[in-house]
Specification:
The chain is α+β, with helices and mostly antiparallel strands. It has seven helices and five strands. The chain has two domains: about 1-85 and about 175-188, no CATH class; about 85-120 and about 125-170, no CATH class. The protein has helices spanning about 65-80, 85-95, 100-105, 110-120, 125-135, 140-155, 165-170; strands spanning about 30-35, 35-40, 45-50, 50-55, 65. Strand 2 (about 35-40) and strand 3 (about 45-50) form a beta hairpin. The radius of gyration is 20 Å and the shape is elongated. Bound molecules: zinc ion (ZN). Zinc ion (ZN) binds near residues 22 and 23.
Length: about 190
């Protein structure tokens, strides 16, 4: 659980609202540091080194990453994989002023899937990322929209029975292995 302020995107690292998960102290200091963590397996393994705000408790000395740092680590993984980051996926949908349900209706991406991508719970695979890339062009979304409409008018709703939903389980989840002192709070 994370009680920290949700709106902490604008660089100014406000320490207020931060609570030490170890001792409950609110005296938290932030330092911007390079945080190195391994990603991938075997030959593909790399060390990613984003700069993140490291929170350190002034009372007990416990250091941790909060959701801001986790988000930056997640973005670093997306950048490494060459896929859209969660905020880019969200921005794409927002560009069309569509809700997740509306966007899912047109694209046939499940709203739950979309939500997981936008929250950074899972990373879309390359094929889905290519799909998202094409959806950045309004003419493609428009074409798809009219295609979906005409299909449903003919009573042949595009079924979601394509078994590739399973691909989602192949999506690599970001699990940076930090030193024991680092906290990776669960999303949601
Ligand atoms: Zn503490």
């Amino acid at each position: 659980m994370n009680r920290n302020s949700k709106k902490e995107t604008n660089g100014s690292s406000k320490e207020e609202n931060l609570i030490c998960p170890e001792c409950g102290s609110v005296c938290i200091e932030t330092s911007e540091e390079e945080y190195s963590f391994p990603y991938g397996i075997g030959e593909d393994s790399v060390n990613l080194k984003p700069r993140v705000p490291i929170r350190t408790c002034s009372d007990c000395g416990f250091s941790f990453l909060d959701h801001v740092g986790e988000g930056i680590c997640h973005d670093a993984v997306c950048k490494h994989l060459g896929v859209m980051s969660p905020s880019q996926v969200k921005d794409l949908r927002k560009m069309y002023r569509l809700t997740q349900v509306e966007f899912a209706e047109i694209t046939k991406l499940g709203p739950a899937t979309l939500s997981r991508w936008e929250r950074g719970i899972v990373i879309q695979n390359q094929a889905y990322d290519n799909y998202l890339y094409l959806l950045q062009f309004p003419e493609n979304l428009n074409k798809l929209h009219s295609h979906v409409k005409s299909s449903s008018e003919e009573g042949e709703l595009v079924e979601t029975g394509i078994p590739c939903r399973q691909e989602e389980t192949l999506v690599r989840r970001i699990i940076p292995v930090g030193s024991p002192g680092f906290l990776f709070a669960n999303a949601s």
